[in-house]
Amino acid sequence: MIAVLGIFVLILLAWIISTDRKRIPIKMVSLAFLMQVLFALFVLYVPVGKTILQSITHGVTYVTDYGKDGLSFLFGGLATGSIGFVFAVNVLGIIIFFSALISMLYHIGIMQKVVNVCGGALQRVLGTGRAESLSATANIFVGMSEVPLVIKPYLKSMDDSQLFAVMTCGLASVAGSTMVGYAAVGVDLGYLIAAAFMSAPAGLLMAKIIVPPSEQKISADEITAVEIPKATNVVEALADGAMS
């Protein structure tokens, strides 16, 4: 009950500091809240949802195990735990590995397809602008500094509400590499993945209460798939990701 009360207290605080309470899009906010609740119930209590979440968790774990093998090869006992848990090797090393992997997936075009599909679905359900929906979805996988590149051509045309939504969603989640870092120190990866997906509608919910949308906004039809500037080759993409 305390957790449920906390949810409504946070929403109440957002309403109190809202810039224009009369323009708060009740339908959009309600749908965003309902989306979070249904997603949580689906992955935590429905057998099919549990299976899907477990499959995703096992897939991410399977991939990060390759990173751990590389750390063991490079650092030996510092990575295997034979001399104790070394944070700089076991956590930061995995973060670098996963960041490089995400960068490579962007380079070959896989991540763009995933983000565009998820962002389009979010836009159709909530009625938010496609650009802010894309940024909210991209935050599930990459960090706040990389997300603006996804919607870079539209930043100059976005109003205060849309820009605030981009910033709020960026602070509502962590990059996929950081999420894997949390898992490396013992946090349940399944809950982290569920929270990452729930953060997209949660960020939009809070943003639209605090800074409601104005009358003029970018039409969803004007927003098309945006490409992040590519590296010369896969090796450069991996190096850029490792250094970001």
UniProtKB/TrEMBL annotation:
Residues 89-185 form the Nucleoside transporter/FeoB GTPase Gate domain. InterPro entries: C_nuclsd_transpt, CNT_N_dom, Gate_dom. Residues 5-78 form the Concentrative nucleoside transporter N-terminal domain. One of its GO terms (molecular function) is symporter activity. Keywords: Membrane, Transmembrane, Transmembrane helix. Pfam families: Gate (PF07670), Nucleos_tra2_N (PF01773). GO terms for cellular component: plasma membrane. The chain crosses the membrane at residues 28-48, 73-106, 163-185, 191-211. The keyword Transmembrane applies. PANTHER family: SODIUM/NUCLEOSIDE COTRANSPORTER, SOLUTE CARRIER FAMILY 28 MEMBER 3. This is NupC/NupG family nucleoside CNT transporter. It comes from Photobacterium damselae subsp. damselae.
